[in-house]
Amino acid sequence: MSNIPDAQPARPWREKDGPKPPVWIWPRTDRPALEVMSGGQWRRARVLERSRST
After folding, report:
1. Using CA atoms, how far apart are residues 37 and 35, in angstroms rounded to an integer?
2. Residues 23, 27, 33, 39: is their CA dihedral positive or negative?
3. What percent of the chain lies above the pLDDT cut of 90?
4. Rounded average pLDDT over 7-17
5. Using CA atoms, how far apart are residues 17 and 7, in angstroms rounded to an integer?
6. pTM for this predicted structure
7. What is the DSSP letter of 16?
8. Which of 11, 31, 37, 45 could form a disulfide with 26 if both were Cys (CB 3.0 to 4.6 A apart)?
């Protein structure tokens, strides 16, 4: 059992947060992937988009 907490979704961007962060979106046929630990196993997770927080 891992003592790493589960990821929590970030709240949506709001205008008072400043300029809207840039977002990159890849086509489904040509997207990057990451290896993530899930349920005690390394699994391949494909990336659909990336947003950069400020």
Report:
1. 7
2. positive
3. 9
4. 86
5. 22
6. 0.37
7. G
8. 31
> Is 48 within 8 Å of 33 (Cβ atoms)?
no
- Looking at residue 17, what DSSP letter applies? G
Unique residue bearing structure tokens 């809207």: 20
Cα–Cα distance between 29 and 1 in angstroms, integer? 35
Rounded Cα distance, 54 and 44, in Å:
27
Q: Quick one: tokens of 48? A: 């659909």
Q: How many residues does the chain have?
A: 54
Please list, in sequence order, all residues whose beta carbon lies within 8 angstroms of the beta carbon of residue 2, skipping any fewer than 6 positions away. Answer: 37, 40
Phi, psi of 16 (to 5 degrees): -70, -10
Distances (CA, A) of 38 to 4, 9, 45, 47: 11, 17, 10, 16
